[in-house]
Amino acid sequence: MFRTLKYQYLAIFWSIFILIMCDIPIGGDGVPTFFEGFDKLTHTVFFFVLSVFLFYGKILQQNSYSYRFLTIAKIFLVTALMGGGIELLQWKVFTYRSADWWDFFCDILGVCMGIFSYILLHRLRFEKNT
After folding, report:
1. From CA 99, how far away is CA 107, in angstroms rounded?
2. For 75-129, how does the pLDDT look when each residue is reduced to its tens digit (9 = 90+)?
3. What Cα–Cα distance (Å) separates residue 86 from each residue in 18, 71, 91, 102?
4. Is 28 domain-assigned?
5. Is residue 27 included in any domain, yes or no?
6. If we measure between CA atoms, which residue out of 49, 54, 53, 89 comes closest to residue 73?
7. How many domains, the chain?
């Protein structure tokens, strides 16, 4: 287990960053927002980067770009649980933040974008080597 965590240091640090950023108080009177929907874009980007870091750690651990469905399923499950956990924390613990199904949807969207990127880049690399 610790061997796996050694390669996932970027994903671990990024997860902590996401947790902090999603649970600190933001907004209120007098605080400007960039544009409507900025929060959704932020969730999408946070989880896209997290999935990329998880794939990167897995590539380093395997020392190859192997394409496994189980790896993709594990990364999807871990990131979905994290996104859902953050929304539950916002709902029950950090009540100054609002839990939102659309935030969770954007988390999953970011993960799916990361998975798509991994599959696309894997395919390009595989075709280049053959």
Report:
1. 13
2. 999 999 999 999 999 888 887 777 789 999 999 999 999 999 988 887 666 566 6
3. 9, 23, 9, 13
4. no
5. no
6. 54
7. 1
